[in-house]
Amino acid sequence: MKHAQRIFQSVLVFFPLFLFLPQSVAAATLKELVNKTILPIGDSIIQLLYALAFILVLIGMVRYFFLTDGEENRTKGKQFIVWGLAGLVILFSVWGVVQILLKTLTSASL
User: Fold this and answer.
1) Reduced DSSP (H G I as helix, E B as strand, rest coil) percent helix, strand, coil of the chain, to 5
2) Could you give the angle at the alpha carbon of 76 between the alpha carbons of 72 and 78, nearest 5°?
3) Cα gap 47→45, rounded to integer Å
4) Most buried of the four, 19, 38, 76, 107, by CB within 10 Å?
5) What would the pLDDT profile of 32-86 be if each residue is shown by its tens digit?
6) How far is CA 109 from CA 34, 52, 83, 103, 106, in A?
7) Nearest Cα residue to 59 out of 35, 38, 43, 79
8) How far apart, in whole angstroms, are the C-alpha atoms of residue 50 and residue 16?
9) What is the pLDDT of residue 20?
10) How far is CA 88 from the centre of its chain?
11) Which has the closest alpha carbon to 16: 51, 34, 40?
12) How far is it, in rounded angstroms, from Cα 19 to Cα 33?
């Protein structure tokens, strides 16, 4: 039973990689491989992080404003809001730094 569980976990971990296998075989260069496989995965992960941070802020707002039956809900709501906003600030600032670096490096190579 434990062996079957390990196989199932391995399949779950590596299955998304097999979805991009045809694209990686068809890629002629490393740049095409990165553009076709790695960038879409990274973009999806970044979008998921933005969504999670925003949902965290919304949950905090609901707990803070609408679940006012105890002080514990208000403090938990504040924590959710602070952590969600901190996540959004970090994501946007990293995105800005990456964009500045990309613009600088690509314009210097021309």
Assistant:
1) 90, 0, 10
2) 120
3) 5
4) 76
5) 776 777 777 778 888 899 999 999 999 999 988 888 788 888 888 999 999 999 9
6) 19, 36, 39, 10, 5
7) 79
8) 21
9) 56
10) 11
11) 40
12) 14
Helix axes 71-108, 39-65, angle to 10 degrees: 150
State the number of CA atoms in the 13 A half-sphere of 109 facing the CB.
5
Spatial contact of 38 and 27, defined as CB atoms under 8 Å apart: no
The structural domains of the chain, with segments of one domain joined by +, span: 2-108
Q: Tokens for 70, please give them.
A: 């105890």
The residue whose two tokens read 């779950």 is: 12
Report, in angstroms and rounded to the nearest whole number, the Rg of the chain calculated over CA atoms: 21
Going by C-alpha positions, the residue among 45, 39, 36, 81 that lies closest to residue 60 is 81
- Structure confidence by residue, pLDDT tens digits, 2-41: 777 677 666 666 666 655 555 555 656 767 776 777 777 7
